[in-house]
Amino acid sequence: MASPLSVPSPLPTTGGTGGLAGYAEHFAETEGYLDFARFGPPSRDVLDTTQRLLEQSAHADAATVDELMRQELRARQAAARLLGEVPLEAVALLPNASTGLFHAAFGLPHGTVLVPAREFPANAYPWLRAARLGRVQPVSLEPDAYGRVTPELVRQALTAETVAVSVSAVDYRTGYRADLAGIREVIGPDRLLVVDAIQGMGVADLPWTAADLLVTGGQKWLRSGWSTGFLYASPRALERLEPTLTGWTGVADVGLFDSQEHAPAADAARFSVTNLSPVTAGAFAAGLELVLRTGVARIQAHVAERTAQLIDTVRSAGGVVLSPEAEHEHAGIVAFTMPRTEPGVVAASLAEQGVTATVRPDQLRLSAHASTTLAAVDRVHRALTSLPV
Fold first, then answer.
1. pLDDT tens string 277-300
2. Range of the structural domain that residue 33 is part of
3. φ and ψ at residue 61, rounded to 5 degrees
4. By C-alpha distance, which of 148, 226, 227, 158 is closest to 191?
């Protein structure tokens, strides 16, 4: 069955590795995979790098460990470029986004932190744990009727005790993009802005350095596999966050084993707890470098096309779209319900057509990437139009 839309063709699947011409060739996900907001299947570059570095470690000699450890620098350099050429010293690798959020929560010694209600749990538990130890106190910020956390809502919730605001750059439920620059402006220079960027990094061109502390994982839109991620810390964050969770690799003179406590590193390295896997660091570097070669703007444009097609398809089948309609307000996520059909029944129909989606008790979520073809939209159309009336 043809798609109900007349749309541009999918990304070409031939050509070189630069730009969009060869982007889809780097991936092997199934045609109906539309669950990138949960997990982004990694590229062949990531797989090849992982295999090569593991093989190198298996044939270890005197130089192997030092050579492998250079992968961390490679990944940090790529992350710094992705953020807009920030100083390398402002970037540190993380095993996941949650680790960075715990650094933020335990690094603030006092005050209150605005945290949106119904946030993803990763952006809630760090603040709850810190509160129980008497450090900062989270204050719930209720989104508007459309599920948005706007600068004006933040402004209204600020008090003299507010020391930070913690938000997701992209809402995991609806795909709504937070106005990071607007929030930065209303909170002023005396408060920190903590941003969980995992649902937008690599797929949305946002003003990332509006954040004081930004964290992301590499397993979703960056398509670099689990146990990958990075942190960006502004000078303001380095000044105000106590290095409470700093480990032995996050200090000055890290190679000097003198049984003394060393001062925390002066830069973002202070957020290191211990050495990470150089294999996953190399894999992460490969994933980041593919994004850089392709260009976030190009990836974003294609995702926006597919997202618009999915929204139109859901609506044409009688569905109710919960995500923002305007392109500048969403980032790859289409949340919806079918009013006369339970989500489980819709999920079964999608699965029958080979569509992978996120299914929750109250909604379904589709999320396309730049390797998603029009055939995936066709599969959704067939699934939704075949539901029992």
1. 999 999 999 999 999 999 999 999
2. 23-42+295-385
3. -135, -165
4. 158
